[in-house]
Every structure is written in C-alpha cells, then in structure tokens.
UniProtKB/TrEMBL annotation:
GO terms of molecular function: oxidoreductase activity
InterPro entries: AKR, AKR5G, Aldo/ket_reductase_CS, NAD(P)_OxRdtase_dom_sf, NADP_OxRdtase_dom
Pfam family, one: Aldo_ket_red
Name of the protein in its database record: Glyoxal reductase
PROSITE patterns according to UniProt: ALDOKETO_REDUCTASE_2, ALDOKETO_REDUCTASE_3
Catalytic residues identified in the record: Y54 (proton donor)
Keywords: Oxidoreductase
Location of the NADP-dependent oxidoreductase domain: 31-267
Taxonomic source organism: Paenibacillus selenitireducens
Sequence positions that bind substrate: H116
Site (Lowers pKa of active site Tyr): K83
Amino acid sequence: MTQHLQATTTLHNGVRMPWFGLGVFKVEEGSELVQAIKAAVKHGYRSIDTAAIYQNEKSTGQGIREALQENNLSREDLFVTSKVWNADLGYESTIAAYEASLERLGLDYLDLYLIHWPVAGKYKEAWRALETLYKEGRVKAIGVSNFQIHHLEDLMKDAEIKPMVNQVEYHPMLTQKDLIRFASEHGIQMEAWSPLMQGQLLDNPTLLDIAGQYGKSVAQIILRWDLQHGIVTIPKSTKEQRIIENASVFDFELSAEDMNRIDALNEDRRVGPDPDNFDF
C-alpha cells in the first residue's frame, strides 16, 4: 500500500495520479491560498484540486507557479485538476470553459478535468467535449464528479472513452460501497471530496478510540482509511501545520479490524448535495 506522499495510482489510460493531494474548496482568491499551495508543494504534495465554481483558479495558478519556481520543479511534476461547472455543460460551452480555466490558472494543460455534477440532459454533450480535449492531447485525463452508478452507466452507453476518475463525497458516514465496487469493475479510480466530513467526524468516539491506539489524529486515521480502501483523497486546509499533519499518514497501517470498525460507521449520510436531487 501507499508508503509515501508522492505515491501514485495508474489511471486506466496509463496516467499516474498521486494518491494524496490538496483540495482548495471554499478558499477565496488571495495570498492565503497562494501560501497554502506553496506550503503543500514544499512539504511534498504533488496534486492540487480546484474547480471553476470555487472562483479561485487565479490564485491557485499563482500558487502553483511560485511553488514550482521555489522548489525547482517543472510543470510535469504536479498533477492539477479542475472541473467544468453546471452552467457550462454542453459541447462548445464545455470546451470554452476548459480554455477559460486554463487562462485563469495560467497553465498550458490540466492533468485531470472533471464534469462537476451530473446535470440531466447535459452531461453527455459535456463528456463529448472532454473526449475531444483528451483526443487532442489538451488534457491528460478526464473524469466525472458526483456521479452515481446509474449516471455512469448512462454516460458509458454512448461514450467512446470511459471516465478515468469519479470524485465523490466519501467519508466514514458515507462509504458508497456499491459505487466503489462498480467503479473498480470498470477501472474507474474513485476519489474522495470532503473526506473529513467538513470536520464533523473529529469528535466521533470510535475514531477517537482508534486514533488513541495509533497515536494519530482522527483526521489522519480517516485519511489513512481512504488510502487503504484505494481511494484518492484531497483534504482541504490552508494552515501549514494542518497541511503537514494531514499528509503524515504513510508511517502506519490500520489493522483489518480497525478498517471494519470504521466501515461500520456508515449511515449513508451526506454533508453535500444529493447527486440525484440538486438544483444548481
């Protein structure tokens, strides 16, 4: 299993994606975000996840460029993800949205571009645009976010290229076992957003008990649980100390018994919107 921060999983098209990265959801444009990205890269992170709707691609791009320079890295050393927003889903509009994201980020390409939500009647045209961008070599990998099994089945009926990644809400209260099994059968890499359930799990008695046994924080226990389930994870933080702490999950392994105890916390409970019932 993953033994260091720069370990990668290989997507079904051969592209290597780090198991661990920094998410920047809800971090506003500005110096705090720039500093967070620089801290993450300095401490070994190689993956950054943003989205058009976060309205922070400019600062994300600035942070990436400064971090590359300060750490003597090349663009190829980082794995950068963004996502097309619901209002831009459509063939031409998705291609335009990709170009706009690149421009805001100040980058020549993305490593991964995702459809942010499965808007009925719109995601197939958007997927066709992602396939075009991929076939033209303008993006290294393409995928989806918040897709349930039926969305994936529907998409793959007409798709030429299968999604390489599906990024979903995933944490001990929402283990999505069937979705993960389905993805695994189809070679789609699962990725977790909100792995710490936006902080709501940090005082969970079971997790506190397990954390005590390993001499780790609850956050570290959850992130390690993700990795041992083969789920890419992108915890969000802007504080350097927390960025370091979140990544200190490669020096221990959870026992099968403790993995099962964490799995048993599942309540199918979401903190984010339900992919089958959202109106934005």
